[in-house]
Amino acid sequence: xxxxxxxxxxxxxxxxxxxxxxxxxxxxxARIEDLEQHCHKSDARYQVTDSRKxxxxxxxxxxxxxxxxDIDVSLVGGQEEVPIREKVLILHYFNLAKGTPxxxxxxxxxxxxxxxxxxxxxxxxxxxxxxxxxxxxxxxLVEVAKKFGGYQVEYGDVAVAINAFSRVPVTIVLWRGDEExxxxxxILFDASITDYLSTEDITVLCETLAWxxxxxxxxx
Length: 220
Fold this sequence. Notes:
Number of helices: 6
Distance between the termini: 63 Å
Structural class: alpha+beta
Number of strands: 9
Order of helices and strands: HHEEEEHEHHEEEEH
Radius of gyration: 19 Å
CATH class of the largest domain: Alpha Beta
Shape: globular
Oligomer: single chain
Strand content: 15-25%
């Protein structure tokens, strides 16, 4: 008997995976009955215009609209297409948000669910790009972070906190190093972050943030 094979879309696997994730996140959003109440949990803004419902979410110091019933995510006042993995990230943040107050206690990636297992991959995708471009002049991180609503905090030699989402502060810490120790870096989170994003989403978020910081530095 001839073996039947599944038809695989002519796309890269990760693109197909994000499209599936986007569809699932949209379906989950559509099942939320009280959108206005749910907006309070994520500090989103809710509006109803004609037959559309509009949710506005702040992400990396920019406003994004989620429009229902189409479940379309777009940048407010911008023409460029939002990358699909950022669309997924925004939907996941809104859908998962529990409205939990800040714990005011910082944790490392290793303290997240399965964080110990994925910590090396996380560091490679997020901390390494920051170190590669900022370890020689870590003070530049403070200036670049301001473009994303970031501000300096007292950790390590140089550190900044950036509200990636309204309820998801991300703290980047750099140590200059000396003759004995090489420069080091780390990314810290408020302990409440798991009530807003999964461990996988946190990795995508930090990778997105890291490369936005790098691109901003390159543009001067």
